[in-house]
Write a structure and sequence with these properties.
about 40% helix; 9 helices; alpha/beta; 6-stranded parallel β-sheet
Length: about 190
């Protein structure tokens, strides 16, 4: 499978020399505006599957829903080290830090925006849609929809409602290392792929 020409520039910016053969198909699918679900082992490079399209489509905002603050902080730090405009909002930030992120979002200075699913309940997607075109919503570790959504993190079950509430529907990407077959229908409906 051939790489789209724009992918090579994004790879360079992300400091990636080579992609795995199985990474090319989902990247191309996302760039062709297809909702995409990828189940791949840990250390496969799943974050590249959405980061490369996000870098290519820099005028559109990519919203990444992550389950853990440590994952959010790690991803944002790595992207910022590569001069890619990434930000997050979470409870560890001061009000001033949150205000700076919100201002950057209003001024379209953010390419990748990371949040926990509970942040969706504040209406954040519709707020940022006023000033940004949301090109992609990524549900990383999407197995959490089925494993946590039904027990202690109900916000996972309403991700789809928040996406469907947008004026313009973005591409939806769901990623996980493991999704049991019986959980896939719930993830597809809840995210909505």
């Amino acid at each position: 499978m051939k790489l789209k020409p724009s992918v090579k520039g994004a790879m360079k910016q992300l400091n990636i020399d080579k992609l795995k053969r199985n990474q090319i198909k989902p990247i191309n699918a996302i760039l062709d505006k297809h909702d995409t679900m990828v189940i791949a082992p840990t250390s496969y490079g799943k974050s590249l599957l959405y980061q490369i399209p996000a870098v290519i489509q820099k005028k559109k905002l990519t919203v990444v829903i992550e389950p853990l603050l440590a994952l959010i902080h790690d991803q944002v730090e790595k992207l910022q080290q590569r001069n890619i405009s990434a930000a997050y909002l979470d409870s560890t930030q001061t009000h001033k830090e949150q205000d700076i992120v919100k201002e950057d979002l209003r001024n379209r200075k953010v390419q990748l925006f990371y949040i926990a699913p509970e942040r969706l309940e504040t209406g954040i997607l519709s707020q940022i849609e006023k000033n940004n075109e949301i090109g992609m919503v990524v549900v990383d570790e999407c197995h959490c929809v089925a494993t946590w959504g039904n027990s202690f993190r109900e916000a996972y079950l309403t991700i789809g409602e928040h996406i469907e509430g947008l004026k313009k529907r973005p591409v939806v990407v769901a990623l996980s290392a493991s999704i049991p077959l019986e959980n896939r229908p719930q993830i597809i409906v809840s995210t909505p792929i």
